[in-house]
Amino acid sequence: MLTLRLYMLQRITALLMAPLVLGHLAVMIYAIQGGVSAAEILGRTQGSLAWFLFYGTFVIAVSVHGAIGLRTVAHEWGGLKGPVLEGFMWGFGLILLILGGRAVWAVTFATGVNA
Amino acid sequence: MRVSDIERHDTDILILGTGGAGLFAALHAGQTAPEGTKITIAVKGLIGKCGCTRMVQGGYNVALGGGDTVERHFMDTINGGKWLPDQDMAWRLCEQAVVRIRELENEVGCFFDRNPDGSLHQKAFAGQTADRTVHKGDLTGIEIINRLMEKVLASGVEKLQEHRAVGLIPTKDGSALAGVLMIDMRTGKFRLVRAKTVLMGTGGGPTMYKYHTPSGDKTMDGLAMALRAGLKLRDMEMVQFHPTGLLAGDHTRMTGTVLEEGLRGAGGQLISHAGQRFMFDFDPKGERATRDVVSRGIYAEMRKNNNPDQEGVFISMSHLGPDFVRQKFKGMVNRCADSGFDLATGKVEVVPTAHYFMGGVVVDVDTRTAMEGLYVAGEDAGGAHGSNRLGGNGVANSTVYGGIAGDTMGRDVVGMTLRDPDETVLAAELERAIYPLTQKPDLVLPLRKQLQDLMWEEVGVMRTGAGMKRGLAGIAQVSVALMDVGVDNSNLAFNLTWHDWLNLRSLCDISEVITKAGIARENSRGAHFREDFPDAGAMEDSDFTVAQMSGENVQVTREPVQFTIVRPGETVLPEDAPETLVAVP
Amino acid sequence: MPTDPPFDHLKVTIDRGPDANGAQTEFEVPAYDNQTVLDVVSWIQQNADPTLSYRFACRVGMCGSCAMMVGGVPRWTCRTHISKVLDGNAVTIGPLRNLPVIKDLAVDMDPFFDKWVAAEGVHHGALTRDDPIAPINETAPARVEANAGIECINCSVCYAACDTVSGNPDYLGPAALQRAWTLLNDAKDDGRVAILDAISGTGGCHNCHSMGSCTIYCPNDLDPMSAIAGLKRETAKSFFNTSFFKKDR
Amino acid sequence: MSKPSITSRAHPLWLAYVLHRLSGIGLALFLPLHFLLLGQALHGAAAMDAGLQFSEMFVFKLAEFGLVFLLAVHLFGGLRLMAMEWVPWTPPQKTLAALATATSFAVACLFFMKAI
Ligand SMILES: Cc1cc2nc3c(=O)[nH]c(=O)nc-3n(C[C@H](O)[C@H](O)[C@H](O)COP(=O)(O)OP(=O)(O)OC[C@H]3O[C@@H](n4cnc5c(N)ncnc54)[C@H](O)[C@@H]3O)c2cc1C
Ligand code: HEM
Ligand code: SF4
Ligand code: F3S
Ligand code: FES
Q1: Whole-prediction pTM value?
Q2: Do residue D42 and residue A112 have CB atoms under 8 angstroms apart?
Q3: Carries keyword Nucleotidyltransferase (chain D) (predicted)?
């Protein structure tokens, strides 16, 4: 099911995510020392272009990566094929992208935060 | 099951068997036949995965210069065959082997072991006067057949796998072949395949001996069919024994399989039940003597022994150092270990084992037979080896003549038309094949064992007239008894027991021919050794046996060898040519 | 010398395949000291159940016809000593996984070979029988790499061991891909473009998850997993040059 | 009569594959929830705090821990895989690499467990 192109996309996004994940985990570990609060998290990320790019890249990568990954699993373990399989991949990728994008937006530039 | 139940199928070129002969024929027929010619392969097993060419270990004989010449290869072949070979066939074998090895490397894609300078590595089997044997480690056959198999699979020939040929069906007037009756083993249904030309490359296979090396699918079907079709078979007494077959008891298929020649070459010792080396009693070269001599030495030693628990002799390698043995003979050490023996440090029981069949259908140098439309190549064809086959000439023979058969059929097929089968013969062959299904089921195996014991005892490594007569009577008994053994007919799909029965039928038929030919030859040549006639006889008066059906009986006659190229005592080598180019170890 | 087994019979359970609706049959088989799995199966057919179907040819590990699932694991049966696979004195034998069953223990190996050919597992060359044989340095790294996989007997054990094959019917499988890698490294082979093309498609090498069952179970100690990794590397290299913008890559 | 189960074919590389796959699926299922939670920020810090409050609950803690754990497993598994695919290891190197991965993985796990 995996062609060279999907394979490369999956690997490239994986490589991209590896440092991002490590970074994210490090921040989280640091952050949760002594409990998490919204203000704490948001205080750090609000208005930061850097964090926007950091998490934005992450979300794009994970959407692509996860969608391709689930596609494989859905084919091998779920028996999905053809258009259903393609639809599944795109659907899942889009959901991740939308939810992820919304989350990134929320923690960086969304104005509702201060309301 | 009636004749009307037989499915009819047509093709242009039909090939039986996928050893070196069958696969090469398929490739070459595809190259020479006109565009659009339909080629069909029918085989008892899976394409390329059955037969003995795949099992070739040592390698492929071909004179490639460095002092070696086609002439020298030819002389070794004639001398090895004790002047019985058909010289034109032997010559063509040696000459074409040179072309075929280039074809294997360049067109088929085989890779054979190299020297440090990049050229092909060659070694010498016993009986050769030059380093001539090309090889891929000690798994040469796998490389040759895998590459051929790929080519043939990719070529788009029609595949009839697990189709067993059971009868050659001639035309009404008997002059030509119309088609071949087969059992589709997977369904148990019959199929008549008509073809303009048919190659029989079913590879003989002396598996009627208690100890034998060939692949399990080889049971002399081809020769039995040819005999019934009235063709002449030559040199049928010539059964080659390999001296060192593994002896692991009669409840394992491992018994009889080859422990390679190289073990003795490297210094392996043969030890009698009394713990003594004995080969020097038979030959100054000891364990390094030729196959026939060592086989007879072991056989004689076994007869002296009356310990019922130990039938064979031992091969012992441990004095060479277990690590050396493990490293140099990894494959053999592993194979012994798989059946519970330790070749590197212990000793392994061995016994001579029936290996190759020199006899076969009488053919011309283009593989044509006396029956129009039928061609025979490989181990099924007689003549090229005479009384003994040199190690390395077997696979050369099947690939060279398989290719020639393909070329010949590809050309002959032009202008030929499909022929109508003789329906009475067809009905008789069908009858014959379904006979066991009409009898009360019983075990086939005990009869096969009985035949194997008999052939080993009476028509084996050493023979006598009286013994072979006993053998003949015994074979007749097994033959008769077999007709009372039926096969469960509840499901004919992949019914191996039915095929065991048919296998034994072929083996009985050919065992009789071997024995009759053995009785007819009252001298000792090559593989055929008569204790009551130990002399070889005058080479100038050499003749070969020819067996043929005459009415219900097998008749054996003798025909003089035609020395078309070289006469005994002469040579085609230049006068000053050295006796051997092989460095003495 | 092998020692006698500590029991006098084996309890052998055989999966009878689709004809028998997946039923199993149990047999008592006399135990011997030198006995392979193939011998056990043969004993049953020759003495107890004449209708039992299975396949073998060479009986010495050269033809690759005799592979079956033995105790849930794919193995060549002619070279597997029974003591290796017994659980107490019992063993279960079934048809090779991932291939259509013809009857009982005999499977149809055509899909395996069709994929072998589809992976361009066949020599591509311009030389003919009239040309001299190419001199080749056997110690050159590419040749060493090619030789590593050359002794494959196409037994399909790796194919049966691989879960990717079971989940993905298009996947070419370890043996065919290993053959492609061998050819890619063969100086005599001119099929580079065709091979890379064949192994980069939907059923290609990129489906392999490196689960390594092929390498673990190959009876000849070959390493298809590493061969496939080789293909992935080779295709990854060529990826940026050409393929990305072509359709269906 | 029981047929031999799939685990009869289990071995370390196979287990690594299964683990990698399961962790991947786990991540794929959990991540949307994680994003939803963060998305709460759109409705203000309070709403998000409510969510985070929720995250004090045991189940949620477990899930958070699960996410981090899965991420760690999957990350190292993925790096291991890409190393195996793209670096032409010799067999002894492979063993070393596997050992190194295992060790770093164990260390990482310990570290995360402590952190949580
Ligand atoms: C263990 C071993 C080692 C050997 N080593 C060497 C060596 O080192 N060098 C050497 O030169 N020679 C060697 N030989 C001999 C060599 O293998 C043979 O000479 C040669 O391979 C015969 O080729 P073939 O094509 O005639 O027959 P095979 O390769 O035996 O092929 C016969 C084919 O016919 C099929 N067949 C049989 N009956 C039927 C039927 N009724 N219907 C349809 N198909 C049928 C078989 O299934 C098989 O496909 C060795 C032989 C053995 C057994
Ligand atoms: C942290 C960095 C990550 C790396 C290095 C990584 C690496 C990989 C790799 C190499 C594969 C291919 C596995 C194979 O072909 O067998 C893969 C598969 C997969 N990944 Fe990731 N991944 C990462 C993060 C993620 C994340 C965050 C998700 C969540 C969506 C995810 C979901 C998946 C899935 C579902 C698969 C398919 C599993 C399979 O094919 O067995 N990965 N990952
Ligand atoms: S790679 Fe090994 S297991 Fe796979 S087909 Fe070849 S020999 Fe059999
Ligand atoms: S078992 Fe299958 S997934 Fe790859 S490493 Fe071997 S081909
Ligand atoms: S029978 Fe040939 S490999 Fe087992």
Answers
A1: 0.94
A2: yes
A3: no
